[in-house]
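Reopening closed ticket. The problem is back. First fold of the pair:
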Amino acid sequence: MRVSFLFFSLIVFLTAALGPTACDNGAHGLKKGDPAPEFSLPGLGKGEFVTFPADFQGKVVAIRFWADWCPYCDHEMRELEPVYQKYRDRGLVILAINVHQDQPTASRFAKRLGISYNVLLDTQGKTAAAYQVIGLPTTYLIDHNGRISTKIIGESTAQLFERLVAELLP
């Protein structure tokens, strides 16, 4: 666990140093227009389970990967809440996927932030690996057809996130 924490800390540091709000142009790995990888993950509630993309047909989905030790995740997750509130009735879904942490840790963090969007648990990191996440936070915006529209590596601003989401919504 300690090695994993140190590895992700190093990646987060390098991501921050090289451009914390950079948008990936898709030069490596998953590219714009590719179908988003499928996954099924438990949520924070007992018996809660989410399957993507099956549960969200026709929606615009923000899939964001985070952990409580990530220095940028706290601020960014709070910043996304008002954007989610503004656009959820138009079809925006946010799936905040906690990577490599247990339910009590993720639950405490989400409760402290007061967020209302979905928090999911990727305790083994398999979904993060499928999305080729190398640093936290990482956010993918998926269009209403289930295809990758944008990948944001590092912390995003509410303004950038809102602009990108608004372009995808009807």
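Second fold of the pair, where the issue appears:
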Amino acid sequence: MRRKGLVRGLLLGWALAFFFDPRLGRRRRAVGRDWTAARIRGGIRRLHRRLRYFGSQANGRWRRLRHRSEPAREQPDDATLSRKVESELFRDREVPKGQILVNAERGVVFLRGEVPSELMVDTLVARTREVQGVLAVESLLHLPGEDAPTKQR
């Protein structure tokens, strides 16, 4: 028992001499205070990150449960679908609006008309596929000087 008391006394005496040294004690106390504060701030940051992570996980699971109970969206009628596709395609100023016709039949969208480049054909078809409610896309678009393709059914 005496040995533990002696060791504790030596450690306490060393700490007091270290931190209250007349020449370097002030600096050592400031460094110790800053070091401790940095460790506390780091712990708070880690705790905050963990809480944010678990909160976002809980939010995602809650949304997943809510989504299961939502009714399935109905397939829009053909006229609505063709208007949705037109509004999506003709947002781009480079698309020739007067030269492209959009029709929809039971969820299948037909694009007819003349476009200036093959790249635009691919872009229009890809953007049409992204519209909600489009089941398939039939591209009857053609380049200037080419014959128009016909519907294959």
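Update: turned out to be a display glitch only; the data is intact. Residues 78-142 form a domain with the Histidine-containing Protein; Chain: A; fold (CATH 3.30.1340.30). The mean pLDDT is 90. Please close again.
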